[in-house]
Amino acid sequence: ADHDAGPALVQTDAHGVVHKGQLKVRSLSGAEHVHFHRKARRSGKRLFEFIYGDVVTYKCKRGFRAAYGGSLIPAPVEPVPPTLPMEFSLKCGKKGDGVLQKPVPGPRDVSCVPVTCDVHMPPSSAVKFPQLPMRKKFDRRTYKETQSYVCRSGYSLDGKPSGAVVFEEVCQADGIMSETNACLDIDYCLVSQCGEHGHCTDGALAYTCECEPGYEVTLVEGRWEKCVQIEECETQGGHESCSV
Question: Rounded to whole angstroms, how far apart are CA atoms 23 and 57?
């Protein structure tokens, strides 16, 4: 049958025919409740039937808005801002078609679709970055969909060298990605091996040691600095005064 509300809203019989100007309307996954301006007859668990001239209003759930395009989410995802209406109404037409009454009258498919959140690549000075597809600087998530992020080098979620650096945020009902995690500057002196004869100074990607007189810096495992006692006999070229 030819109808205006789209397959997400209208159901016909097994032959695709709507009889006697009756419109069968089913509830939507993104709709909180369905309100009929006149008494409707239930013809199934989630299917209602009403007649010519009757109006049905859908109220969308939290995180959903009334948007054109039906119940299917197009690819790529079109923006659905939280400023869109939370309700839309259909009127049963002469042929059993659903005619949109609001937000904008006309023969266009509309449904309760999830709000979207835009994810942009931040400037290079940022401390956390979204993990986007290769060569993309922008992506879009829908309500309750997650986005992976990674901390820049020298940062972790707990400020420790062994701390996690990958995390997820979620698209919220207000169209903004959550910010429940923060990337903290790592204090590398937490793993200092300078020893009791050296002073640790935290750096961007490692630490450095300032050793006391008589001690010098050496590398442990090829990376971490450590203060060790200077072998004075070696520095004096093996003179007799250094012999044992």
Answer: 14
